[in-house]
Every structure is written in structure tokens, then in C-alpha cells.
Design brief:
It is built from ten helices and 15 strands. It is an alpha/beta fold. The strands form four sheets. It has a six-stranded mixed sheet with strand order 4-3-5-14-6-15, with helices on one face. Strand 9 and strand 10 form a beta hairpin. Helix 1 crosses helix 2, helix 1 packs across helix 4 and helix 2 crosses helix 3. The termini are far apart.
């Protein structure tokens, strides 16, 4: 008769699968690679299946391992929820919370907010990772993705944290040299600073004025996958940028940047996105509620993010609820 696998071994296994490496998994767990290898070997013996293919460079999951991985995630989530339901964690959540976000927004906005979160809830251990791509929040093992932009898969739960929009802007020096565009049709003839947003195709700006939507194909001498570099290039007078108000509002207020074609913008709200299996997670709930209040308190009235009581509470689950009105 097989013993039931230990939850600690299942947790080690899920990290190995996510990292595709014993060494990287050991680093995340704070243990030795030898310990990780031993726990995987014992788990394979208990389940009587081969979970991983080992090579000199990477670890690949087997077909049986894929099934075990999905069950392990469910078991570990249920175990965490059990501990939260029977303890005081409905009021004081505990355990690790894995959060992802984009580079600039994660560094400038999310990280300071999470610092305050763990100050208020010392039982939480928050791990924040930032990316220049859209994260598969469920498949990559995250509990929560804090993202700017309204393109959200229907199988995920999304709670709006704040309203936000992207605007066209450029330095006064650039506009003095090249002139100020008066219509969208003039944008392709200008130097546009293109960035690969997490939620947009490269070099395509989708803009809205009232009820009218337009798509413009733009190009320029400089492009990047990082918004902070694009903002710096705009400040240097290198061209026109399309950036979120949270990122450029201070520069606009100071006159370092000037808004171009102010009637046109791109809606790009701030959302908390998480898998449906975590719908009742106290850790996720506390984090989302904190972020809603944080944005409402710190951003309302500053012109960058607006998170009023009605807007911040909006959300949808599995495609049900208010549909985002424009891709951000």
C-alpha cells in the first residue's frame, strides 16, 4: 500500500516544474539541490511513476508528471485554504503570496504598495517578480498578476484596481523641431517611440476619441521593450511616446513633456488577475482589497490613476461581468 505523498514534497515538485531546474528550485526554496533531488526521488517512489526527465542542463516533466503537477497545485491550494479557514487568517492571512507585474509599474507602483501590505500583515511573505511579457498567472504558479491593460483571458478572475489611460506625449524640443501633429494621419510621418507592451502588438497604436476607435501603424528610430527607456527618450526629444498617465503625469505637469492630440487616448486600467481556483483565497482577497484601497487613497485626484468606489469594485469572473471597453 502506497503512503500518501507529503505536501512538502508536492510543493518541491511544483517549484521544480515551474523552474525546469533543480538548482533554481533549490534557490527559491532556500534548500540544497541534493535535498530537492531526494524529495523528488521519494515522491516518485511513493507514486510509483516517473515524474521528470533529467538532462545535464534542464528538467522536463513527463506526461504522468503533468497530471501530478495539476493535482499538486490543487491540493496545495486547498491545503492553504484549509489552514486559512480554520485559523485566524480570515482576519490575519499567512503564508507566501506570489505576485507578478510588469517592469516599470511593478518597480515604481506595485513594490512600494506590497511593502506597506506586509507591514500591515506580517504573516504574509510576498514574492514579487516583474516581466516584459504577459504572464500566464495560473500556469506559471503565481497567485496574482497586477497588470496594466484590459486584455484579460475569460477563464481568469479580474478585479479592477484603478482607472488609467495612455496618452500621446513629446518633449517641447521635439515639437519645436518637427512640428505638432494635428491629426492621427500625421503620426506615421513622425518619429514615434515604439514599445512592445504586454497587451499590444508591436508598432500598432489603438486610440479612442469619444466613441470613435482608430488604429495607427507607427515607426521611429528607437524602440524598446521597457517603458522607462521610452520615457527617457521622449524627455531627450527623440520622438512621440504613448505612455500611461501614471508614468508621465509628473513630466506633463512640470512641462518636460507636452500632450499631443489630447482628444485621443488609450484606456489601460489596472487589474488584479488571478486563477479561479483562488477565488476564495484569503491571502488573495486581502491583497486585492488592500491594493484597491491603496490606489484609491494614493492616486485619486493626482490625474494619473482614478480608483473611485464604483470603479475599483468592478470585476469579472470567467467572462462574466463588465467587459473592458478598450484594449489598453
Amino acid at each position: 500500500m502506497h503512503k500518501n505523498p507529503a505536501t512538502d514534497d508536492l510543493r518541491v515538485f511544483t517549484v521544480v516544474v515551474r523552474k525546469s531546474s533543480f538548482g533554481d528550485a533549490a534557490a527559491e526554496l532556500g534548500v540544497s539541490p541534493a535535498y530537492v533531488s531526494k524529495r523528488i526521488r521519494l515522491l516518485e517512489e511513493e507514486l510509483a511513476v516517473k515524474l521528470l526527465h533529467r538532462t545535464t542542463r534542464r528538467v522536463a516533466v513527463t506526461e504522468e508528471g503533468e497530471r501530478v503537477f495539476h493535482w499538486a497545485q490543487r491540493i496545495l491550494d486547498d491545503m492553504d485554504q484549509l489552514l486559512q479557514d480554520v485559523a485566524i487568517t480570515r482576519r490575519e492571512p499567512r503564508g507566501q503570496l506570489r505576485v507578478s507585474s510588469s517592469f516599470g509599474f511593478g518597480r515604481q507602483i506595485v513594490a512600494p504598495a506590497l511593502s506597506r501590505l506586509v507591514e500591515l500583515h506580517p504573516g504574509l511573505q510576498v514574492r514579487l517578480e516583474v516581466f516584459d511579457r504577459l504572464v500566464d498567472v495560473a500556469g506559471e504558479g503565481f497567485d496574482l498578476d497586477v497588470r496594466v491593460g484590459d486584455e484579460i483571458a475569460p477563464h481568469l478572475i479580474a478585479r479592477r484596481l484603478a482607472g488609467n489611460r495612455r496618452v500621446l506625449c513629446a518633449a517641447p524640443a521635439y515639437l519645436a523641431r518637427r512640428g505638432t501633429p494635428r491629426t492621427l494621419a500625421e503620426l506615421p510621418s513622425h518619429d514615434c517611440l515604439v514599445i512592445k507592451e504586454r497587451d499590444h502588438p508591436f508598432g500598432v497604436w489603438r486610440l479612442r476619441s469619444g466613441a470613435v476607435d482608430e488604429t495607427v501603424k507607427v515607426r521611429g528610430p528607437l524602440s524598446a521593450n521597457n517603458g522607462e527607456m521610452v520615457v527617457q527618450w521622449a524627455l531627450d526629444g527623440r520622438g512621440i511616446a504613448l505612455r500611461s498617465l501614471w508614468d508621465v503625469d509628473a513630466h506633463l505637469c512640470a512641462g518636460r513633456l507636452v500632450q499631443v492630440l489630447p482628444d485621443w487616448q488609450q484606456e489601460a486600467n489596472v487589474w488584479a488577475v488571478y486563477p479561479t481556483r483562488l477565488d476564495r483565497s484569503a491571502k488573495v482577497r486581502v491583497c486585492v482589497e488592500f491594493l484597491q484601497e491603496h490606489f484609491r487613497t494614493h492616486w485619486t485626484g493626482r490625474g494619473a490613476l482614478q480608483a473611485d468606489a464604483a470603479g475599483a469594485g468592478e470585476g469579472r469572473t470567467a467572462g462574466i461581468g463588465p467587459k473592458p471597453s478598450a484594449w489598453g
